[in-house]
Amino acid sequence: MQEIVRSVGIDIGTSTTQLVFSRLVVENLAGNYAVPRVSIVEKEVIYRSKIYFTPLRSATEIDTEKVKEIVRGEYAAAGIRPEDLQTGAVIITGDTARKQNANQVLEALSDMAGDFVVATAGPDLESVLSARGAGADVISEEHRTTVANIDIGGGTSNIALYEKGILRGVSCLDIGGRLIKVEQGKITWIFPKIHALAQKHGLALEVGDPAQEQKLYDLCTIMAGHLAQALGLLPKDEDHAGLYTNNGSPIPTEPAVRGVTFSGGVADCVYDPEPGDVFRYGDIGVLLGRAIRNHAAFQTVELFRSVETIRATVVGAGTHTTEVSGSTITYEKDRLPIKNIPILRVAEDDETQLDTLAASIRTQMAMYRPEGVTEQVAIAISGAGRTSFQAVQQLADAILDGGREAVESSHPLIVVVENDIGKVLGNAMKVKLEHKKDVICIDGIRTRSGDYIDIGAPIAGGHVVPVVIKTLIFNS
């Protein structure tokens, strides 16, 4: 039996803002008399918006009202209402995530986009979404090789490394096509890091200078070299570490990169360079794409063509953010959907002994007590090796002991477990609490400390719930 889930992806990037609407097909792959095994079996983009320049009120502030006008207009053009959507993501990316009102913009859009549309930001998530939208994960699996996707936008370049379909690392650099702006033949803005990089290499560039194609191409070649350094295709020089966004770190040196895909607004200039005015977009994106294509370091790896380029991140947001839980879970229907719940993750080393598991929960609960009041959290564990009746009962006791503050709060008790024990563990906790506490216990979901979780209303006959794991950390 199949069920259709409709999703939206909204991407507010450094240069552009766009939407996609998608159709996800959820199906029970088990037989009639077997335990349900529900999966997302098909993903299809059913509507792509126009691509808009991201409206800004100033260099440090997004124009919230104009962004909302864009979103409303595209919903109307697609014939879709917020209540028609079951999942999706509003993601704010690149340099736009550093704007002063980025959080407020996300909140405003999340409220108008649908009951279970998440609002999120952060370079790590953007790296994964753009790579999956570009198809780098599938390409690496099909070719049994290691592929890095570089999503080059206006303000940043997000990198995700996949080995045979498995994510091995992410990173983000302050390299993008709109870090130098050009209007009427003159340079009107230079990103400080890029200004310093130019000076270091003896390229005199200042706001107000004529936009000299050769000089700016030389700078773009240096930027392309740093992208190659980030992939391990060139040795890292003394300037390289300072180009990572938020003092981030590079992708792992192993496995070695064997192929690349490109996405983002600059990608089309890498794959299909066109003649004409190189400053036609008011920036250096065309030159950066050309410099990457011509750089000797990128000739040493295989170039794969992306499934999506400029739309990779928004397609990723619309089709790759949602997972489904395991089908043996416990939940309180009237408590769902529930959004933006911080994850309290117990380290796997602390799970080996039940007393250390309880102590870890108890210690971490103190971080979720703003102004002395315990906030809603989701306690996340692996649950590995605890499948017998006795082991599950003991695990329930340890969670209730360590999470006493959560139990005594007005919020439902939420437990997220990787192992397939959500229903029996949830029922054990409900019995021990004498059915006086709402309990939500889902399984089949892996999380990390610092993540947030959204849990949607049940689908597939109530067997599973849609889940989105995300970060709400903004760049600074």
Describe the structure.
This protein has helices spanning 64-78, 102-113, 123-134, 136-142, 192-200, 213-230, 267-271, 285-294, 312-319, 354-365, 389-402, 404-408, 422-432; strands at residues 2-12, 16-28, 38-48, 52-53, 56-58, 61-62, 87-92, 118-121, 146-152, 157-163, 166-173, 180-183, 186-190, 259-263, 302-303, 322-324, 338-345, 378-381, 413-417, 439-443, 452-455, 466-470. It is α/β, with parallel strands linked by helices and 476 residues long. The longest helix has 18 residues, at 213-230. Mean pLDDT is 86; it is low at 472-476. Helix 1 packs parallel to helix 2 (102-113), helix 6 (213-230) crosses helix 8 (285-294) and helix 10 packs parallel to helix 11. Helix content is 29%, strand content 26%. Strands 16-22-21-17-18-19-20 form a seven-stranded mixed sheet. Strands 1, 2, 3, 4, 7 and 8 form a six-stranded mixed sheet that branches. Strands 11-10-9-14-15 form a five-stranded mixed sheet.
